[in-house]
Amino acid sequence: MAEVQARLQSLSEDYTKLQQELQAAVQSRQKLEAQKQENSNVQKEFERLKDGENIYKLVGPVLLKQDKVEAESTVNGRLEFIGKELERTEDQIKEIQDKIEKKKGEIIQAQAGLQAGAGAPGKVAAKG
What we know:
2 helices, single chain
């Protein structure tokens, strides 16, 4: 019986760790979504620019003039990278969710085993 309780404790700890991993992955996805939105807004601003208008990039405390083609290329590259990271994070979230469901099933089985083990001696004692 103590063995089943120890297994249940171990499963519960694993379940908690998986939930923490899931929470971290979701937070990561939220950051990526925010970055994607920000870069998409910058891309829209580039589309509104007229020929001859200047683009400046903040580097530390200084604004540096930047070529439009270079700036667009940088933003497009960022969007591509963020898109790939989002896909990777989504896959990671699905994988963790699958692990959580599997662990939940194991916990339920262990609890059923514990209850079955605890229930049998209790019934015998009640009859006696």
